[in-house]
Structures are given as C-alpha cells and as structure tokens.
Amino acid sequence: MMPYLAKILLYPVKSLDGVEVEKVGVLASGALQHDREFAIFDERGKFVNGKRHAKIHLLRVQFALFNRTISLQIPGGNSQQVFHLDEERQALEATLSNYFEFAVTLRQNSLMGFPDDTHSPGPTVISTATLTEVASWFPGLSVDEIRRRMRANIEIDGVPAFWEDRLFSEQGDLVSFRVGDVDFFGANPCQRCIVPTRDSYSGEAYPSFQKIFATQRQATLPNWVASSPFNHFYRLSVNTQLPISSAGKILQIGDGVDIFP
C-alpha cells in the first residue's frame, strides 16, 4: 500500500477532547483551522491544561464546528450543557471556573491557535501502525486510548510502525513532504509531557509509563532514524511547519503522501 491520510483530529479547545473530521483547511500560519483555536487560562495567564491540572481529563466535550458550539459534560452532572463559543463564552467561562474552583478565561487565537511548539505550529503527524505498536507496550491500553493520549492531528496509514520518523532529519534540517497538494516541512520528533502517562478519561496515572515508553522507544528505533534529535527517547509523532504556499489548501481523508529527497 501507499501512504495515505487516514484520520484528521482537531482539538478546538486545547487540552479537551478532539473531534474527527473528513477535511480541514490550512491557515496562513501553517496550523489547521480550528485546531487549538481556544485555550483555557487562569488569572496569572497560565494555561489550564493537562500538564498542570489532571482534573481536566474528567471533562467530556463534543464540538459542532459548523454551529460553533461546545457540549460540556461535567463529572457528576446529569446532562450536557451546550454553549456557543462566541456568543455564550462568559457563561462557559463561569461553568469552567466553578468546576476548577478558580477563575478561568477562554482565549481565542484564530490565526495560529495555541500550539505547544510555536516554531512548528503545523499539524503533528503519526502513523496508525505506530499507535498500534505503542499500545502493545502497555497491557490493558487500546490503540484508541494511545491515540487519545498522543493527540496527534493527522494519522498516516499504509505504512509500517515509525514510518513518520522519516519526516525529520538531523537537528536543524527540515524534511519536505506532501499530503495531497499540501506541502509540509517535518521538523523534529515531538517531546512528550506528563499527559500521555494518564488515562485520557479518568486522569489516573499508568505506573512507570514514561520509563517503559522510553525503554521500548529506544529498543524499537529504526537504525535509519536521525539520532541527533533524540536527547531522550520520550518522543513520538512529528512536529511540522507549512510554507505560506500551503495556506488556504485543504487536507482530506484519502490524500496520498509523498516524501521528497
């Protein structure tokens, strides 16, 4: 099989549940439209995210992107609460503030979103086979649970595990590739944080997750992979940058993938 785009996952509010879409537009910044468009902040201007607040894992949300609404399920609540992201933002902030027990605000950046890596704000890339392989390292964890923990944007199928490690080179060098008619530059393997160590629904930590992951990642690292980006082996998926020529183009499920020499 040839590599092809199998899944597109967007995370409209940073650190909350994602939404799977059939196609998505590329912004001038290189980010995907609606991805991490919103983020929750505390009164000090710090992100309220999974790195700092494990309680966020317990929130369940659904998005209607066309209608600009978020359906929020609070733990212990009897029903979902629906908010318009633009017209009812203050009510949503009040509900979230009550849940976290401190004041929060919801900020919007429709130009680039709120990526972890502002130097490479393009979509993160991983392969389906990689997620399957990583799931095999952790008894009791499904492929979908690993997918939810890694939170990559675009998933490539028709390739072996760790195929996406071809999309970066030695430090400082970018790798050119194309998905459909959208041009990309692969930058580096994504450094993971504490979030993948926790259950994506309950927030409960998996014992020794990071140690097991790093040991297995090093043991299974293909011998053709550029080694200089690995100052440690707790890295998975690839951060990307997109040239301005890709702005306004569309990524769509089924698009073929080509890597340029």
UniProtKB/TrEMBL annotation:
Q: Taking every annotated instance into account, which residue ranges of this chain make up the domain MOSC?
A: 89-260
Q: Which organism is it from?
A: Nostoc punctiforme (strain ATCC 29133 / PCC 73102)
Q: Which GO terms describe its molecular function?
A: catalytic activity; molybdenum ion binding; pyridoxal phosphate binding
UniProt name for this protein: MOSC domain protein beta barrel domain protein
Q: Which InterPro entries match?
A: MoCF_Sase_C, MOCOS_middle
Sorted alphabetically, which Pfam families does this protein's record hold? MOSC (PF03473), MOSC_N (PF03476)
